[in-house]
Structure formats: structure tokens, C-alpha cells
Amino acid sequence: MATINPYVNFNGSCEDAFNFYRNVFGGDFEYVGRYKDMPSEKPISEADANKIMHISLRISKETVLMGSDTHEAFGQPCVPGTNISISVNTDSEKEAENIFNSLSADGQIIMPLGKTFWGSYFGMFTDKFGINWMVSYDYEQEA
């Protein structure tokens, strides 16, 4: 069964925000990745290299708060107030495809579903109602 978690974008303050959230909720970061660590054909400036590409903080057994700093080369700009997406994590590629294809109908696909360097089957879109979504299946759960 799919799980749903909030995904928040920032204009360069993601690390500060997540350190604040960790102080409030406790816990440890499950993952911290920076733009400099990611393979890309698109150049990353020195100013953007240490920005957060992805971070996750477990809030409870069921909930993970995730976030990143936006980067103009990789998607839409961050606009405060609309800088949140719903992240759906599925139990299979098939479930990811069904949810992605159904929810993205008549919407705008930002990143088609595909295998990623971080070990997920992942895609992003904005649905026909203007809601941002991320759909993911993590291959590590197969082990």
C-alpha cells in the first residue's frame, strides 16, 4: 500500500529549515544529498553545489518530512506558499505507474517515471488541479 509524505522546497534555506525541524521533532536525518554529489549533464555552480538536493527526517513511524533546495535547471522555481508537494511511495513499479499515470492525466509532467541514480523509480508532475506530486518506488525494499 502506498504511503504519503510532505515534500517541501526552499530557495537555499533547506538545511537551516531542516536543522530547525530536527530540533523540534528530534530524530536523525535518514538521508542528506547535495547537488555536488549528483551525476548531471547540467552544470552546477559553486554557489549551488552545497545546497540540498534531497533530505529526509523521520517524524514518526509512518511519516517522513522531505525537502530540497530548488534549482532552476531541475524544475519549477520555489514560490513560498506553493512550495510543497505530496510524495507517494509505492510497494511496486506497477503501483507507481498506475498512480503516476492516473494522477498526472491532463496535468503537466515535470519528470517522467524512470530509474534514478539514487535507486528509485521516480517521477514528478503537477496534476490538473495545480497540486505537485512525486511518485516513487524504492528498489532497496526488494532486498
UniProtKB/TrEMBL annotation:
Domain spans labelled PhnB-like: 4-135
Source organism, top-level taxon: Bacteria
Name of a matching Pfam family: 3-dmu-9_3-mt
SUPFAM superfamilies per record: Glyoxalase/Bleomycin resistance protein/Dihydroxybiphenyl dioxygenase
Name this polypeptide is given: VOC family protein
Native species: Carboxylicivirga mesophila
